[in-house]
Specification:
The longest helix is centred in the middle third of the chain and has 9 residues. This protein is an alpha/beta fold. Helix 3 links the parallel strand 2 and strand 3. A 3-stranded parallel beta sheet has the order 1-2-3, with helices on one face. It is 24% helix and 17% strand.
């Protein structure tokens, strides 16, 4: 879709391969802050489908796309909003 027709920002549409290989394969929970469109979550899901994936993104359009890949997708601005879960 051409950019002038409301296509999402390309940020987060491709997984960072350097970051992907650093996530332990046996991780029980992965929190992706600034997840963009959820590409890292999608890529890690293929490596370990059992991991709980939580994405945090401030752009509402990208957060909506990321929710399709994540177990939980939060639309937050971390400098302003509080996390909706307790520490730990």
């Amino acid at each position: 879709m051409p950019a002038d027709q409301g296509a999402p920002n390309p940020y987060g549409v491709a997984a960072n391969p350097d970051l992907l290989v650093r996530i332990p394969l046996d991780a029980k929970l992965v929190v992706d802050v600034g997840c963009g469109a959820g590409a890292l979550g999608r890529a890690f899901r293929r490596r370990n489908p059992a991991t709980r994936l939580v994405g945090i993104e401030r752009d509402p359009r990208l957060a909506a796309i990321a929710r399709e890949a994540m177990d939980e997708g939060l639309e937050l601005e971390l400098a302003r909003d509080e996390l909706p879960f307790a520490p730990g």
